[in-house]
């Protein structure tokens, strides 16, 4: 059911995911940036804002910090996982894997590699601050427009 909290969550967390991806792209080695990373991160932000943050509002401002951080964690997890999955599919089409199990393990290895590259203080601080502020704004709108 669409609510104002869900709408505002989607509106806020989609650009947060996009912006975090833009911040992360220069950190990758030359020619190894993940395919479709900005679009996948924006879609993960849309999912995190609509499903995670928006569905929990209104619950009070202390809870808003919690579900804002949870939406940010969902954004990060799904962006990393989906990007790694797309990269694995592209590698599998190039016949880089010996079997399906190697491809599945590769998804998790790629996710960890991407997370380590993006673990800079600027990205983590932006991610945490954006998630908390996004949760508080979602809560404010959800309380005013139920």
Keyphrases for this structure?
5 helices, mainly alpha, single chain, 146 residues
Structural description of this entry:
The protein is mainly α and 146 residues long. The chain contains 5 helices and no strands. The chain has helices at residues 4-24, 37-56, 61-93, 100-117, 121-144. Helix 2 packs antiparallel against helix 3. The longest helix has 33 residues, at 61-93.
Structure summarized in a few sentences:
Helix content is 79%, strand content 0%.
Secondary structure: elements and pairs:
Blueprint: H1 4-24, H2 37-56, H3 61-93, H4 100-117, H5 121-144
Helix pairs in contact: 1-2, 1-5, 2-3, 3-4, 3-5
What percent of residues adopt helix (DSSP H or I)?
over 70%
Alpha plus pi helix count: 5
| Biggest beta-sheet profile | none
Q: How far apart lie the N and C ends?
A: 12 Å
Large-scale geometry? elongated
Query: Could you state the order of secondary-structure elements as H and E?
Result: HHHHH
Cα-based radius of gyration, to the nearest Å: 16 Å
Classification by helices and strands: mainly alpha
What is the number of strand segments?
0
| Low-confidence parts | none
Mean model confidence by pLDDT:
94
Question: What percent of residues are in strands?
Answer: under 5%
């Amino acid at each position: 059911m669409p609510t104002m909290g869900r709408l505002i969550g989607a509106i806020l967390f989609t650009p947060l995911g996009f912006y975090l991806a833009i911040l992360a792209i220069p950190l990758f080695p030359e020619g190894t940036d993940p395919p479709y990373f900005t679009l996948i991160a924006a879609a993960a932000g849309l999912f995190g804002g609509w499903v995670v943050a928006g569905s929990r509002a209104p619950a009070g401002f202390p809870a808003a910090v919690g579900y804002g951080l949870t939406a940010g964690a969902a954004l990060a997890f799904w962006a990393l996982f989906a990007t790694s999955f797309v990269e694995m599919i592209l590698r599998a089409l190039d016949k880089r894997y010996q079997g399906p199990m190697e491809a599945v393990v590769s998804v998790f290895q790629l996710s960890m590699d991407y997370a380590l590259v993006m673990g800079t203080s600027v990205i983590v601080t932006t991610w945490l601050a954006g998630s908390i502020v996004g949760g508080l704004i979602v809560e404010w709108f959800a309380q005013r427009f139920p």
